[in-house]
Automatic annotation (TrEMBL), chain A:
UniProtKB keywords: Cell shape, Membrane, Transmembrane, Transmembrane helix
NCBIfam families for this protein: RodA_shape
Designated name of the protein: Cell wall polymerase
Subcellular location: Membrane
Highest rank taxon of the organism: Bacteria
Topology term for the membrane: Multi-pass membrane protein
Record bears the keyword Transmembrane: yes
InterPro entries: Cell_cycle_FtsW-rel_CS, FtsW/RodA
Transmembrane segments: 12-36, 56-75, 82-103, 151-181, 188-205, 211-231, 238-259, 333-353, 365-392, 398-419
């Protein structure tokens, strides 16, 4: 048994430092976004606690309570109860369509008194836990399909449930578990195919089909030129190459069909806005246009804390939540966003370093799950504010306003820190 | 196992991070379009137009001031009109106007204000005030338009109107925006930069709904508007109005100057117009009619109408001839050998020649001046003589601008060697016999009424003048350009003026001036002129000053198509002089006669529109 008194000594204070830094910076930017130069709110004003900045203070306070709870729970609880947590979350996800309420057009929330909770946010943690527990079995070998599909099932069920409640953005986060699986031995072909698929999808949208064909033929030509002699002599090689080109071209042509027939109207528009930045700047492209204006107007040094005009005066929708990065960009300029990106990558590096120190595969896998999820949010959230990603309801971890988001990331992170603080107690298997 | 994969994963993270930083560098540092877009979004620049300076007469009487009016603006996004009929009734507009203007405003911007209705009067503004609560999204901004105390003096004042598209594109410093008001003619134009004041600018921050959120950068960039400077003119409004009343039913000009200062006391351009017609919403309605009127009521004749000076020019000849040494008080010429005719008198000396306005006398005098040299052929001698003559005459302000502070002064024509060379297409193509008409103020010489009034002032001062001007003080300090304080010498010695003034006195007492032009108790001296007019009856001209000793007023009167100078122009001038010096007119019969006298040419009487009223008809 571990004595919780020793936690202080073992917890990774560097990571905690990053966490505190991000939460504080996030809160400053939320405060700036709601700040009104005409009527600045003071902390003693009750109206302050109705504003996003005030409410976020409450979320931050309750997060510390959560942290304490996680740290005092026995570290073995998370592994032992992973399946129950997972099943519980699945139940919640199933119940959402019947018991949930609609907030901002999204029917995916539970309401308990004044507190609203989005189970999809917590499903990530539950899935990471169960996936880590599954991989903890030394017999599981991700090189083999028999194990691959079981891992896929663990990821896929909550993902499908979330897609079912029309939260495609949140569902896409589950793709980040590829990073966990890759680290734990999944063949590199899978992430390669995944990235290749994305490249193909984007190029199919951006350029004409014949250009893709041309590029493919050129690549094939180069391949033929440099491949071993024995392959060159084998006529089947050319057959396979042609086949591969045919398959890829078919997929490329399918993209258009998918975009036009499978995707929903709002998703189609988000993609359209992405590939054509000038498209409908007052309507569908409004959010990304305004977001780019806000960030772009920050310049090199930024307009200074509370000095932003775009983010403060509601030009950017979802300012405090998904678009909090705009405030950083506008008020703190290129210097600010660059430092923020560097800090975030440093944070991820620290987590990966810690994960690799783990003796138990459970803790290590969970650590990489955590890293994957955080990175995916970072990628999509910042990407969409600067017009490199389609607009999705993906918050920036620790920075964005919102209880569900802050709580779920806090839980996600501190479970890992709890596990990490006990890494010497774990049995290496 | 697989630990190297951590590095691979982090390499991927790092690449994404680099991509983001690169894109952000492009967005924030290289591309500056976003900065402008942000300012367009969130900063509203509000121009505050100050009150235009007021205009006073020489005794401090207000001539032009500003009346506040109210412009109605709409912010389409906030504008909700539940009952369009009620709205149209309240603002007295048609439904079509409402729909059209609302649509245009919406097309411009949903969140920025657009002008909806211009120039509501104070009364209209008060009457709609109560109803405004029913119309969110509409608000008033105060504005002002020019208001005129008197219908007199319109032409010299000029008017204020929306800047024209060409003036808008031609402006140097980008001061005016579309729809801004600017002085168009007269002193409104000449003193535009003085009158307009300094514009204020307010930078207000607005949110995405167009709601103002306070001053941008705490108002540090704001500039408060500064009202325009007032103009204190030298105009005597009582004399101006009196002169206007005498010039009604006539086409012509009247200019009165205080000789010692060059200050213009009155300046009439007839026919005139009511300046208040060209303010505010009336402008487009009346401007077109005035501009198309064949009598050109918008033209400010005194500085810009062209006439031949006729016999009044003989005064210049008498002065220049003496200064150049060709004639003296005792010089006598007979009528013999002159192509210009005269009647009813024998050979006269210089004083007598001015009294009876003897044409042959000045023909011979001019011939002597031009044919001075004995060397060379007649062509060369003509050119040499004319140039010396023209150089001296130019000192009187002929053929160039006097520099009056009115926007539209014309140079006139003083024919010199260069001029005739171009008319006759080459040197030595002309000689005295081609140009002698100018000896008696006919032919190629062209002057404006202002120049002739200035000539009267020069003679009154015996050899100098101060550039005539309307404004004698600007702003609180009542300062003025030193140009309008500095005497200009004409290069004719004072002694040569005596005989000319004697002749002018004779002309009034028992010369060319008829009885109506004599003031019993004031010694006015003057010279009549009759400007030949091929198109109709000759123009009547008279220049004078009074009293003969210590002159207080110099005057020039031009009445078109009124015939002989002594019969129309001289009596009108005498009435103005009498009124100015005595502040009353005893000769009521003469006054009534010339106020009612109609010298309007028939062609004008028929086509003339009602709009171009005589400026004094109240």
């Amino acid at each position: 048994m571990t004595d919780s008194n020793h936690i202080q000594g073992r917890i990774d204070w560097i990571t905690v430092g990053f966490y505190v830094l991000f939460v504080c910076l996030g809160w400053m930017n939320i405060y700036s976004a709601v700040y009104s130069p005409d009527a600045p709110l003071s902390f003693s004003d009750p109206a302050f606690y109705d504003s996003n900045a005030g409410k976020q203070l409450v979320w931050i306070g309750t997060s510390f309570v959560l942290i304490v709870c996680i740290l005092v729970i026995d570290f073995r609880f998370f592994e032992s109860f992973a399946l129950f947590i997972y099943l519980g979350l699945l139940l919640l996800l199933l119940a959402v369509p019947f018991l949930g309420v609609t907030i901002n057009g999204s029917h995916s929330w539970f309401k308990f008194g004044g507190v609203t909770i989005q189970p999809a946010e917590f499903a990530k943690t539950a899935t990471a836990l169960l996936l880590a527990k599954y991989l903890n079995d030394p017999l599981v070998n991700l090189n083999k399909f028999a194990f691959q599909w079981k891992a896929a099932l663990i990821i896929g069920i909550p993902m499908l449930l979330i897609i079912g409640s029309n939260e495609t953005g949140s569902a896409l986060v589950f793709a980040s578990f590829l990073i966990l699986l890759y680290r734990e031995g999944l063949p590199g072909t899978y992430p390669a195919l995944f990235i290749g698929g994305i490249v193909l999808f984007v190029s199919a949208l951006l350029v004409k089909a014949w250009i893709i064909l041309l590029v493919l033929v050129l690549l094939a030509g180069l391949f033929v030129l440099f491949m071993p002699i024995y392959l060159q002599r084998d006529p089947k090689t050319y057959l396979r190459l042609s086949g591969a080109i045919a398959v890829i071209m078919t997929l490329a042509l399918l993209v258009d069909w998918v975009v036009n027939n499978v995707l929903q109207e709002h998703q189609r528009n988000r993609i359209r806005v992405l590939i054509d930045p000038g498209f409908d700047p007052r309507g569908l492209g409004y959010q990304v246009t305004q977001s780019k204006i806000a960030i772009g107007s920050g310049g090199f040094w930024g307009k200074g804390f509370l000095g932003g005009t775009q983010t403060k005066f509601d030009f950017v929708p979802e300012q405090s939540t998904d678009m909090v990065f705009c405030t950083i960009g506008e008020e703190h300029g290129f210097v600010g966003v660059m430092l923020m990106i560097i800090f975030f990558l440093g944070f991820l590096w620290r987590l990966m370093y810690l994960a690799d120190l783990q003796r138990s595969r459970f803790a290590r896998a969970y650590g990489f799950g955590l890293v994957g999820i955080l990175f995916f949010h970072f990628l999509v959230n910042i990407g969409m504010t600067i017009g490199l990603m389609p607009i999705m309801g993906i918050p920036l971890p620790f920075f964005s306003y919102g209880g569900s988001s802050l709580w779920s990331f806090t839980i996600l992170l501190f479970i890992f820190l709890k596990l990490d603080s006990h890494r010497s107690d774990m049995l290496s298997r | 196992m697989f630990t190297q994969r951590r590095n691979l994963i982090f390499l991927f993270f790092g690449l994404i991070g680099l991509l983001f930083i690169g894109k952000l560098f492009f967005l924030q540092v290289i591309d500056d379009t976003y900065e402008k877009a942000a300012d367009n979004n969130a900063i509203r620049k509000i121009i505050q137009i100050p009150f235009r300076g007021e205009v006073y007469d020489r005794f401090g009487k207000l001539i032009v001031y500003n009346t506040p009016v109210y412009d109605l603006y709409i912010i389409p996004r906030k504008a909700v009109v539940k009952d369009t009929n009620q709205f149209c009734r309240v603002f007295r507009i048609t439904r079509e106007y409402f729909i059209k203007t609302t649509q245009r405003a919406r097309a411009y911007s949903r969140v920025k204000p657009s002008l909806f209705l211009k120039h509501l009067s104070k009364e209209d503004f008060a009457s709609v005030q109560d109803a405004m609560v029913d119309f969110p999204g509409f608000f008033f901004e105060t504005n002002a338009f020019r208001t005129y105390q008197s219908r007199s003096f319109s032409n010299a004042l000029g008017y204020v109107a929306e800047i024209s598209p060409t003036a808008l594109t031609d402006q140097k410093d980008d001061y005016y925006r579309q729809g801004d008001y600017v002085g168009i003619s007269g002193i409104e134009s000449f003193y535009e930069e003085t009158l307009r004041g300094q514009r204020g600018v307010k930078y207000r921050m607005v949110n995405s709904n167009g709601v103002e959120k306070g001053d941008y950068k705490n108002g540090s960039l704001n500039i408060n508007p500064v009202s325009g400077n007032n103009l204190y003119t030298s105009i005597d409004l009582a004399i101006q109005e009196y002169a206007d009343s005498l010039m009604q039913h006539k086409v012509g000009s009247l200019v009165a100057i205080e000789p010692s200062t060059g200050e213009i006391l009155a300046m009439v351009s007839a026919p005139s117009y009511d300046a208040s017609l060209l303010t505010g919403n009336n402008f487009s309605k009346y401007y077109q009619q005035l501009a198309l009127d064949p009598m050109k009521p918008l033209l400010n004749r005194p500085p810009s109408a062209y006439y031949r000076p006729g016999s009044t020019f003989k005064l210049v000849q008498a002065l220049v001839g003496q200064q150049l040494g060709f004639i003296g008080p005792g010089t006598v010429f007979s009528h013999a050998g002159a192509p210009v005719k005269c009647h009813g008198h024998g050979p006269v000396d210089l004083r007598g020649a001015i009294r009876v306005s003897c044409n042959p006398y000045f023909y011979h005098a001019f011939r002597k001046m031009v044919y001075d040299k004995t060397t060379g052929d007649t062509y060369e001698r003509s050119a040499q003589g004319l140039q010396r003559w023209a150089d001296l005459v130019a000192n009187f302000g002929f053929g160039r601008k006097l520099g009056v502070d009115l926007g539209n002064e014309k140079k006139g024509i003083l024919p010199n060697v260069e001029y005739y060379n171009s008319v006759y297409k080459g040197e030595k193509m002309w000689k005295f016999s081609n140009i002698y008409s100018i000896s008696i103020g006919e032919g190629e010489i062209v002057v404006s009424p202002l120049k002739m009034a200035n000539l009267a002032a020069i003679i009154a001062n015996r050899g100098w003048y101060i550039p005539p001007h309307v404004v004698k003080g600007i702003g609180l300090k009542k300062s003025i350009d030193p140009f309008y304080k500095t005497p200009v010498k004409v290069g004719v010695e004072a002694k040569y003026f005596n005989v000319v003034i004697d002749g002018m006195e004779d002309a009034v007492t028992h010369g060319t001036v008829e009885a109506d032009g004599r003031i019993p108790d004031i010694k006015m001296v003057g010279k009549t002129g009759t400007s030949q007019n091929q198109k109709g009856k000759d123009h009547s001209i008279f220049i004078a000053f009074a009293p003969r000793d210590n002159p207080k007023i110099a005057i020039a009167v031009f009445v078109e198509n009124a015939g002989f100078g002594g019969s129309a122009a001289a009596p009108i001038a005498s009435l103005v002089v009498e009124k100015y010096l005595k502040r009353k007119v005893d000769r009521k019969a003469v006054e009534t006669k010339f106020m009612n006298m109609n010298y309007l040419p028939n062609v004008y009487s028929v086509t003339r529109k009602k709009v171009a009223i005589d400026s004094t008809k109240k």
